Amino acid sequence: MADKPEELLAEAEALLTGAASEADIEAVRIRFLGKKGALTAILRSMGSLSPEERKELGLKANAVRDRIEVLIEEKKSGASATAQAQRFQAEKLDVTEPGRAFPRGTRHLITQTIDEISRIFMQLGYSVTEGPEVETVFYNFDALNAAPNHPSRDLTDTFYITEDILLRTQTSPVQIRTLQSTKPPIKVIAPGRCFRTDTPDATHSPMFHQVEGLLVDEGVTMADLKGTLDTFAKRMFGEDVTTKFRPHFFPFTEPSAEMDMSCFVCGGKGCRVCKGSGWIEILGCGMVHPNVLKVGGIDTERYTGFAFGMGVERIAMLKHGVDDIRHFYENDVRFMKQFG
Ligand code: DAH
Q1: What is the distance in A from the centroid of ligand 1 to the CA of 170?
Q2: 285 lines ligand 1 (CB under 6 A)
Q3: Do the strands 134-136 and 243-250 form a parallel or antiparallel pair, or are they unpaired?
Q4: 3-state secondary structure of 152
């Protein structure tokens, strides 16, 4: 004969007290109340008893079953409350905790300088365009009127990819692309990367940036060029700077010039920044050569134009007192952060 119901109850109570998880509790239920459980066995075995015995045992067994069920329910809700409390503890979120600082980067000084130059020319009515960094010999040299033996074509200056394809050495090829794709009046600047086989030092880098400018319209003269670039220098470096133009040579302009501005640091007296001369060279410029206009399909009887090109690194270094061009490419956050 199986254990007595009250013994089973005591046993179940003891097991439930020790049960720690919902799985433990379920194991107790199966052990006593399951199809093959101990209490179920008692109820099944009653067939062999006398009616009185059967009644007595039946009442007891049913009472014990009810009691175990109640205990299990109580334990279960306790267990799930504990589990929930544990989860709440583990997932606790303090919504009053101050947020963690998320460090934001800064725009690179070269980007900032290009944006500043672009903004000034946009105020003067220019639009901003771009051209490919991988160029053809035609756009980078031939169409820009560079003589076949021009030294800049040299393998020692230019990164050639094939005989006809190279990394542009200047942004000037964008002039040709613009002349070919648009009709006058043309008024664009073209910022971008350029490449030359220079060995890196404090003022040279094999990759650097230029901003090209091109204006083509009827009746454009050197006076327009001077007025425009003088305005640019003043907006970029301060209203006090003055400019002067020195004759120079570029294949794609005639006449050509370099523009110097009075030193914005010493006002022209001579200092470290202007190397004692009072003047700082900031860009190359000139009247667009008729050969260049022709390649671009422009009627040279009707239109004239001027062009200019400046080094972005040089302007950024001057303006912000950066003493070594390599700072721009090392991306040391201590450097970058100074220009946030
Ligand atoms: N492309 C020249 C250079 O890399 C810069 C330049 C000079 C551009 C005169 C021009 C210009 O458009 O008119 O040295």
Answers
A1: 7
A2: yes
A3: unpaired
A4: helix
> What whole-number distance in Å separates Cα of residue 270 and Cα of residue 251?
32
1 confidence band (pLDDT: 50, 70, 90)? very low
What is 109-337's CATH number?
A: 3.30.930.10
Nearest CA to ligand 1 atom 5: 309
Ligand 1 neighbour 176 (Cβ under 6 A): no
- Residue 9 confidence (pLDDT): 87
DSSP 278: S
Model confidence at 302, pLDDT cuts 50, 70, 90, reads: very high
308 lines ligand 1 (CB under 6 A): yes
Report d(CA 136, CA 146) in Å as an integer: 13
* pLDDT tens digits, 244-272: 999 999 999 999 999 999 999 999 999 99
Ligand 1 atom with least separation from CA of 288: 13
Q: Ligand 1 within 6 A of 253 CB?
A: yes
d(CA 166, CA 160): 4
Amino acid at the residue 131? G
Question: 193-231 as b/e, with b when 16 or more CB fall inside 10 Å?
Answer: ebbbeeeeeeeebebbbbbbbbbbeeebeeebbbebbbe
- Ligand 1 centre to CA of 118 (Å) is 17
* 327 CA distance to ligand 1 middle (Å): 24
| pLDDT, tens digit, 9 for 90 and up, residues 55-114 | 888 888 888 888 888 888 888 888 888 888 889 999 998 889 898 888 888 899 999 999
How close is the Cα of 149 to the center of ligand 1, in Å? 18
Residue 170 in contact with ligand 1 by CB distance below 6 A: yes
pLDDT of residue 128: 98
Q: What is the pLDDT of residue 286?
A: 98
Ranges assigned E (strand) in the chain? 127-128, 134-136, 165-167, 186-195, 207-218, 243-250, 253-262, 279-288, 303-311
